[in-house]
Amino acid sequence: MLQQIKEDQEKSYSELHRPSSEFATRTEYLDHELQIMKPRRWALNLPFRDFRFEPEDLVPAIAGTIGISVMYSAVMAAWASGLTEKWDHVNLGAEWIIEVVRIEMLIPALLFCVIGSGFLNPRANLAGNHGPMIPLIGAIALAGAHPLALAILLCGFGLLLSYFKGGSRLVNLTSQGVAGGLLVFLGFMGANSQISSLFSWADGLQAKHSLDHSLAYVALAIFVVNIALYAFLAKIGKRWLAIPACSIVAVAIALALGAGVDLTFTTTPGLPNMNPWYWWGSTETGWQLGLPNFSHFVASLPFAILAVAMWSPDFLGHRIFQELNYPKNTEKVLMDVDDTMTCCSLRQFTGTLFGGGNITSSWGTYMIPAAIAKRPIPAGAILLGTLCMLIVVIGYPMDVAVWQPVMSCALLVGVFLPLLEAGLQMVRDNNHTNAAGICIFAAIVTNPVLAWAVTMFLDNNGLIGDKERAQRLNMIDRIVIPGGAVIICTLAMAAVGMLPGIPAML
After folding, report:
1. The domain containing residue 310 runs over which residues?
2. Which of 45, 110, 252, 397: disulfide with 50, CB 3.0–4.6 Å?
3. Per the UniProt record, which residue ranges are transmembrane (predicted)?
4. Cα–Cα–Cα angle for 179, 123, 302, rounded to 5 degrees
């Protein structure tokens, strides 16, 4: 037996592969595929030699494509709204939003989905969207941050953490109570925002299109049906289908109730402008912001710190999801947290340099359905990247992605409800409840960034939450890093006027 195991360990994937007809069930075949794979790290992985394409790979590819197109659209819409409100000379409309989304879906899909996670490192999960940061985009813009400055800081911090293997350390610094409170706040605020947006959209249809009757009931009908559908999917263990299923249902209901007058197809086939200078070189083209200056970096700093700090729990959560769904002896195909952080950092800078504005993280709307479907990363990553590029070139599907019923429902069931659920699940006892409550209160009074820093410092020193937590941490983890985060966040926010009642220092 031991001799056989040793021989199998020396054989390649192609030598160990057996056709599905030799297995009693499809599940057994998929389990066997996961157990025999031996992905090469930062080397060329080839189809049939190192992995195969299976019908199940279409599930995460389609779910991920729908999820990311909607989330990118929400991010760019938030940037457009915040920057237009912040700066008098900036005017960013729907056409600009779609064009920036196409940039984000095209170049990163090729470089980091197809080439990166597909062929070069199948243990690095795809770099997607940072869902918990979506509710903060408006605040980031109003604080005077610059998307390119934010991307540079995120890339630098992420690469440093990856190099020094700092992911697990940040997980230890942010307790379950603090993280749970942060997720509950972001989930609630985001859900409330999308509910308000959809009702406002439905209320405004009559005046916008000169209709003789109100369509305000459309939003209510969409929410009622989607809540029931989401609950049903959760009950049968198919919640990973929530984004495509609820998006399709939202479109069907809106069209059936007469709201289709607001859906137009104006994005023609073609390619977006991929000249970085067009996007960042002038205050008259692209983002209309020009290149970032020192104040932009100062304003972006606290949000970059928070985003990178929240990467590690996000990454580990996706890896744990794999572990829960994969069979035993599949350690070689589990996502590597530090490699994923490296790819996210490089993707953050590259996507924004070419004109994007996404805040990236591990791609949950891909990984969760992939794990449930018992598929490894590479084949689905190649399919997903190809689908994203096709949608960009075709153009018309982008108009559906930014339509309010699709955007609101996909964000609600794909980001904000899961955030609420995850946050509530993390608050398990009185210690966690205490830390979470303080975090939520501080976030309401100031903002989530400073709330995270302050409550992390208090929690790590036993002043709130688990009183014994301080005894398990060394001086650096208890005082230096949390204290430094509080000082940096406070100074940065004071500089840009984000502290209530205190005028901007810059």
Report:
1. 55-496
2. 45
3. 58-79, 100-121, 133-161, 173-195, 215-233, 240-261, 294-312, 377-396, 402-424, 436-458, 478-499
4. 35
